[in-house]
């Protein structure tokens, strides 16, 4: 694992814009909190001591580096590319979410915060946030839609066992977008002592850059592991795209390599014409605009003719973000709609990998429960 901070590798923009996408659209009351966060994040981006501390915790506590597994039987089944899987499902707490939560918790302590808050939908990010809070001696509050709490009661149980206060959100759709609203309401009144651990590459600048920075460890490891295993770079790197943190984590290390194609696969739901899917890029149905006030970023949400943001449709809960941050909007690589196997996030990725004619392909496995 590299001990040098990846400031030059990680995607970053000082003003938070990537082409027409990104930026920061926030209420005035939150400006001081965002300015403090930008200043502190800029400092740790170039701080090798901070990165070494982060990597040491990942190694000793999270179990990194996660394996790069050669899928020999899947490779034989399709008879085309050699398929390798980056096993983020074997990361502590069962997903890639801990990479970001642990990094932001360390940042919170460096900023002198004593409390962290987070939103969660399926509960993976909530469990990761509760876990790092317990590890680092921080108090934690996690906001979760009532509907999601009922469907993901196991994750709610573990968040509470880890000492987090899990707050049900009972208005609106009672799902993730409402949990984000409530988390921001909390932060407005508590940012002097509290850091908001945004769960993915979403929201106003610098949140997408922060998530991308800490998740970049996925691609850094995968690149080193693949060069060690095969002596060459892959032809393609595949990743499922929801909020964007897993895909950005996998892609960033390969961005300088022009011979590597980066392929994102979105949840296709019930198909392009159904209106019940979460493919904002692949089907070309995303429209430039602010992805609701609570997200605070110029992105490409699916919008109705009345300019309301359309809800996402997935069989799974991973993940119901209206936007995908500035990076995805700027268009890094190819994006497919994975509607063939039923539209769960990640379900269509293996299908696309299997059809590839590439000599070597890497698939970033982000979570245990597809």
CATH architecture of the domain at 62-93 and 213-365: 3-Layer(aba) Sandwich
Fraction of residues in helix: 25-40%
Strand order of the largest sheet: 3-4-14-9-10-13
Average the pLDDT over all residues and give the rounded result: 81
Structural category: alpha/beta
Main sheet specs: 6 strands, mixed
Task: Kindly identify the CATH topology of the domain at 62-93 and 213-365.
Answer: Rossmann fold
Overall 3D form: globular
What's the level 1 CATH class of the domain at 62-93 and 213-365? Alpha Beta
Uncertain residue segments: 288-294, 300-309, 312-323, 329-333, 340-347
- Rg over CA atoms: 19 Å
User: What is the overall number of helices?
Assistant: 14
What is the percentage of strand-forming residues? Answer: 15-25%
Task: Describe the protein in words.
The structure is a single chain. With 370 residues, this protein is of the alpha/beta class. It has a domain at 62-93 and 213-365: Rossmann fold, CATH 3.40.50. 39% of the residues lie in helices and 17% in strands. The chain is built from 14 helices and 14 strands. It has a 6-stranded mixed sheet with strand order 3-4-14-9-10-13, sandwiched between helices. Strands 7-6-5-8 form a 4-stranded parallel sheet, with helices on both faces. Helix 4 crosses helix 9 and helix 10 crosses helix 11 (245-251). Mean pLDDT is 81; it is low at 288-294, 300-309, 312-323, 329-333 and 340-347.
């Amino acid at each position: 694992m590299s001990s040098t901070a990846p400031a030059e590798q990680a995607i970053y923009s000082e003003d938070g814009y990537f082409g027409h996408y990104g930026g920061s659209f926030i209420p005035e009351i939150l400006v001081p909190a965002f300015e403090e966060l930008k200043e502190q994040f800029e400092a740790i981006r170039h701080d090798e001591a901070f990165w070494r501390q982060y990597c040491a915790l990942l190694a000793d506590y999270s179990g990194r580096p996660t394996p790069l597994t050669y899928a020999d039987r899947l490779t034989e089944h399709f008879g085309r590319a050699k398929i390798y899987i980056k096993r983020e499902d074997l990361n502590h707490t069962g997903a890639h979410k801990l990479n970001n939560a642990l990094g932001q918790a360390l940042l919170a302590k460096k900023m002198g915060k004593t409390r962290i808050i987070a939103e969660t939908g399926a509960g993976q990010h909530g469990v990761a946030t509760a876990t790092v809070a317990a590890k680092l001696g921080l108090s934690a509050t996690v906001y979760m839609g009532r509907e999601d709490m009922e469907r993901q009661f196991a994750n709610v149980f573990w968040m509470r066992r880890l000492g987090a206060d899990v707050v049900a959100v009972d208005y609106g759709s009672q799902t993730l977008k409402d949990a984000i609203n409530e988390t921001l309401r909390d932060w407005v009144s508590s940012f002097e002592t509290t850091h908001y651990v945004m769960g993915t590459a979403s929201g106003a600048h610098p949140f997408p850059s922060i998530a991308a920075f800490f998740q970049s460890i996925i691609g850094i490891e995968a690149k080193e592991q693949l060069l060690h295993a095969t002596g060459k770079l892959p032809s393609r790197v595949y990743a499922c795209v929801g909020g964007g943190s897993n895909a950005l984590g996998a892609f960033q290390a390969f961005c300088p390599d022009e011979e590597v194609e980066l392929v994102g696969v979105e949840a296709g739901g019930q198909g392009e014409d159904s209106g019940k899917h979460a493919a904002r890029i692949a089907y070309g149905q995303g429209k430039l605009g602010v992805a609701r006030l609570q997200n605070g970023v110029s992105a490409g949400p699916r919008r109705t003719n009345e300019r309301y943001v359309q809800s996402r449709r997935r069989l799974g809960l991973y993940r119901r973000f209206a936007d995908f941050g500035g990076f995805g909007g700027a268009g890094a690589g190819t994006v497919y709609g994975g509607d063939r196997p039923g539209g769960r996030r990640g379900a269509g990725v293996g299908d696309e990998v299997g059809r590839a004619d590439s000599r070597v392909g890497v698939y970033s496995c982000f979570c245990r429960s597809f």
